[in-house]
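Weekly structure sync, notes
Attendees: PL (lead), two postdocs, one rotation student
Agenda item 3: pending single-chain targets
PL asked that the sequence for the first pending target be pasted directly into the notes so everyone works from the same version. It is reproduced below exactly as submitted, 227 residues in total.
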Amino acid sequence: MKQRILLYLIVPCLFVSTVAFGQLKGGFQLSYLGFTSLQMKKAYKGAIGGSFGYYEWSGNYIGHEYLFGFIASIGKPAIIDKSWTIDQNRLVLMSFAFSYSFLWRFTGANPLKEFTPYFGAGGGIIIGSEKIYALASRTIDDEDEEINEYSDALRGVFVCHVQCGSIFRIWKETYIKPEVRFMFSGKSAYGDWKDEDRERLNAGLYKIMSRPDFQFTGYNISMTILF
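Predicted structure, written out during the meeting:
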């Protein structure tokens, strides 16, 4: 609850301060996220993302970046009971992300130059819906048992990052911005329930397979068009 209250206060303040003290510049970003946490890497391999960005330079070297976007991926959950024959199993991740970055340009003075390298650091939140589906069967003592279940969960984590990249002018006030970002994420565990919780919520599905830990630690390679 305290984290949510801080989030509701900090995010609007950051955005309002940029509008009040700097000139916004828009952009659209496409990215690939490679997971390094073991559970997410095994479940999803990686994810794609897209963001709308707002950029403001408040001095010769200092800048601010705000990104609002999505992260999506399709994967397979971990199997924890090998006695079942798995006909279908699937994870579908659709998350929304907000991040703020403090940027430092190596080349000062406005406007942006033909080539402007920079580095930065910041943080944000990722909140998403993760769907899990299972179609499985087994035979015990000549009795057939089948599970055909679906479950959805809303999950969220806080993320911090460091980044580096360069801004290139391609035409008048249009720029491209390739970037590499390293992300460090908290976890949102979804399998640490008591027995009564498992019985209450799709007990059969979660006896067969488990969700990953929703940890977004990894690297992010992106390309942004600024206009």
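Discussion points:
- Confidence is low (pLDDT under 50) at residues 1-22, 191-198.
- The radius of gyration is 22 Å.
Action: rotation student to compare against the earlier draft before next sync.
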